[in-house]
Amino acid sequence: MSYGSVVILLGAPGAGKGTQASLLAKACGCDHVSTGDLLREAVRNQTSLGMRSKAIMDAGQLVPDELVLELVADKLRSGKENTGIILDGFPRTTAQAEFLDKVLGTVATMTIQIAIDESEVVRRLSGRRTCGDCGEIYNVHSSPPSGANCNVCGGKDLIQRPDDREEVIRRRLEVYEEQTAPLVEYYSSRPGFHEVDGSADVDEVARAVREIVGSLEKQETGS
Ligand code: AMP
Fold first, then answer.
1. Which of 40, 92, 124, 129 is catalytic?
2. Is 171 a catalytic residue?
3. pLDDT for res 29
4. What 3-state class would DSSP assign to 179?
5. What is the pTM for the complete model shown?
């Protein structure tokens, strides 16, 4: 991607936005901006933003727009030039989408909706475990570690995120339906909107995403 182009990954919690954003970022050398990761980092560092966000996140609710917008504005300002950006988990409300429109102005933007069923979301998220030492992500159903410890660093603590407990997952899905799903309509009438089937395996979804993003690059270079 050339300078300033932006890919927005939309989809319910557990659709695979984080995994796909990270694969795409590696493939195209872009910046991966995940508001969930930025917020979790703020919680770990016990910043005032982190302290205000922790209980909200643990309950599966959305952090208020003004806090998230501040975080994203900082991140976009500090981004490297000549680099595309992949947004994962942002925007999540109409107010956030409107903010993004203002900040980006005429910058080429593409939106990819990763579609997935609710039952699959619950299965994926309730099985997700993260290595407490290196952050490697596993799933006890589909991609467990080969032994009791982390495959990458040998870490012993494979942790379940507080918001991946089943009762919180249900709440996150309700919040998604109420506040984030309307963004599909917000973006779907625009030329850069695409949808992929998020229930396919990771490599297949990644291929579909790369093909879509490749078509944006061709349009930009005129090839
Ligand atoms: P994620 O890792 O994207 O699933 O995000 C984890 C949690 O962080 C969400 O359930 C929200 O509490 C919070 N969060 C992440 N991104 C946003 C956002 N754009 N707006 C509000 N809250 C967010």
1. 92
2. no
3. 87
4. helix
5. 0.88
Question: What is the model's pLDDT at position 105?
Answer: 82
The string over 122-161, giving b where at least 16 C-beta atoms fall within 10 Å of a residue's C-beta and e elsewhere, is bebbbbbbbbebeeeebeeeeeebeeeebeeeebeebeeb
129 assigned to active site: no
Mean pLDDT by 10 residues, the chain (223 residues): 75 94 91 94 95 95 96 82 87 96 85 94 92 91 92 95 92 96 95 95 95 72 54
The pLDDT value given to residue 1? 40
pLDDT given at position 2: 38
The protein residue whose alpha carbon is closest to atom 19 in ligand 1 is 90
Among residues 181, 186, 184, the alpha carbon closest in space to that of 62 is found at 181
What is the pLDDT at residue 21? Answer: 96
How many Å from the N-terminal Cα to the C-terminal Cα in the chain?
13
- 210 part of the active site: no
Of all protein residues, the one whose alpha carbon is nearest to atom 14 of ligand 1 is 36
Ligand 1 atom closest to Cα of 88?
A: 3
- CB count in 10 Å sphere of residue 81: 6
Q: Which residue has the tokens 């595309």?
A: 84
CB 109 within 8 A of CB 82: no
**Mutation choice for ligand 1 from 9, 57, 126, 183, CB with most ligand atoms inside 8 A:** 57
